[in-house]
Amino acid sequence: MYHPKMKEWDDCLKSMFDRIDRILEDRYGGSWKLRRNRPERGSTANPEADGLFNVGVFFTPGYGSEHGRGYLVEIILATEDAVPARKREEIEESVRDLLLEFLPEYLPDRKLYVDRDGSMYKIHGETGLGNL
After folding, report:
1. Which pTM was predicted?
2. What is the pLDDT of residues 106-130, one digit of tens each?
3. Which pLDDT tens digit goes with each residue over 31-90?
4. Domain-located, residue 83
5. Contacts of 7 by beta carbon, 8 Å cutoff, 6+ apart
6. Fewest CB within a 10 Å sphere: which of 3, 80, 109, 120?
7. What range defines the domain where residue 37 resides?
8. How many domains are contained in the chain?
9. CA 48 to each of CA 4, 63, 84, 86, 125: distance values in angstroms, whole numbers, following the listed order
10. Does the residue 79 lie in any domain?
11. Is 15 a member of any domain?
12. Model confidence at 4, in pLDDT bands (50, 70, 90)?
């Protein structure tokens, strides 16, 4: 069972990443063949489960990271085709740019940053839920 503040946080992130998924699908959908077991875009109720992209985050306590705790951004392309490194980098930079644009809209009044942390981007800063 989640605390209401945790549910609100998760709902905001889910809405934002569903929006990012739609934008990526519009830009890159059809560029690579979907995996055989991957449904076409829009054929499930959850954008994470269909189409070319599954974009989301998972929490990390940040041990060993210069940015500390935060949410690592995971960008999965549901294809077995080879995605050129330059295209992959372009997609990752697009996600970063969209996060920088959307974070103030979805999570206002928080100082959040998006920086490279190893091979992934990380959302960090004021990620706490306050006093529970």
Report:
1. 0.90
2. 999 899 999 999 999 999 999 877 6
3. 999 999 998 898 998 888 889 999 999 999 989 899 999 999 999 999 999 999 999 999
4. yes
5. none
6. 109
7. 4-125
8. 1
9. 23, 28, 22, 24, 25
10. yes
11. yes
12. confident
Residue with tokens 């549910």: 7
Instruction: Give the closest residue to 105 by CA, choosing from 43, 29, 19.
Output: 19
**Strands, E assignment, 61-100:** 70-77
- Which pair of tokens denotes residue 87? 């295209």
Do 88 and 119 contact (CB within 8 A), yes or no? no
Across the chain, the runs of DSSP E, i.e. the strands, are 53-60, 70-77, 112-117, 120-125
The tokens of 65 are what? Answer: 């990271």
Structural domain includes residue 85: yes
Give the amino acid at 53.
F
Distances 32 to 1, 7, 67, 70, 78 between C-alpha atoms, Å? 39, 34, 34, 31, 9
